[in-house]
């Protein structure tokens, strides 16, 4: 263990495999904190008597980072604030012509290794020289988690027809309508009726709970 101070780095890549590095931005001063936010989606289809929405799937995951850029003279060899901002933009926002996309980012510091893409940047200028030049700024970055296609397929949310669904019937619902919603086809109406022991499917009493089995169970 060397004990040397490690600076947080933002590394940008031109490809989603994170193989071709485009640039790096190192913090002048390491952040005092960073945060992660996750979102969960719920199905708002509720009948009278239901007290909470049912799980639908996972939403986005975001990483927020706030840090200081300083050119007051307190930090050796510091650059003008405007130059620092331009350097940050080159790393995090520069359009990649070959892929027609903004770069893929990796946030690296200690045990932190977050892969994503810039969602927003906020720069707050908080100190100025006598000539009006900014000499200190506070930067906040919000980065959306990037998940590759293979991982995304493994983490499909419950809107997938390959997963079981339990619906509580509401006024106006029909079995063909729900089959279209779940499977994208009305061809499974008879099978869903059989699974749920229905003798018919034209009149579904509100409040009835119906199970829609995964496609894999019916193949």
Can you put this structure into words, describing what you see?
- It is a single chain.
- With 219 residues, the chain is α+β, with helices and mostly antiparallel strands.
- The chain has 2 domains: 9-154, Elongation Factor Tu (Ef-tu), domain 3 (Beta Barrel); 165-218, LysM domain (Membrane-bound Lytic Murein Transglycosylase D, Chain A).
- It has helices at 81-92, 149-154, 175-183, 189-195, 215-218; strands at residues 9-13, 21-26, 34-43, 54-70, 104-109, 112-128, 134-145, 165-168, 209-212.
- The chain has a 7-stranded antiparallel sheet, covered by helices on one side. It has a two-stranded antiparallel ribbon with strand order 8-9.
């Amino acid at each position: 263990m060397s004990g040397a101070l490690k600076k947080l780095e933002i590394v940008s890549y031109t490809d989603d495999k994170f193989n071709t590095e485009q640039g790096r931005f190192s913090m002048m001063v390491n952040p005092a904190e960073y945060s992660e936010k996750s979102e969960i989606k719920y199905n708002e289809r509720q009948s009278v008597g239901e007290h909470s929405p049912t799980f639908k799937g996972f939403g986005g995951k975001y990483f927020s980072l706030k840090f200081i850029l300083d050119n007051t003279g307190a930090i050796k060899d510091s650059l003008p604030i405007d130059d620092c901002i331009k350097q940050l933009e080159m790393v995090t926002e520069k359009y990649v012509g070959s892929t027609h996309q903004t770069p893929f980012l990796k946030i690296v510091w200690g045990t932190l290794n977050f892969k994503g893409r810039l969602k927003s940047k906020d720069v707050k200028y908080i100190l100025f020289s006598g000539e009006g030049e900014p000499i200190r700024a506070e930067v906040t970055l919000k980065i959306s988690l990037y998940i590759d296609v293979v991982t995304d397929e493994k983490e499909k949310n419950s809107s997938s027809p390959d997963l079981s669904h339990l619906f509580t019937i509401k006024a106006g619902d029909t079995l063909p309508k729900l089959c279209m919603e779940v499977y994208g086809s009305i061809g499974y109406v008879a099978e869903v009726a059989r699974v749920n022991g229905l003798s018919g499917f034209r009149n579904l009493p509100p409040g009835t709970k119906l199970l829609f089995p995964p496609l894999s169970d019916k193949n």
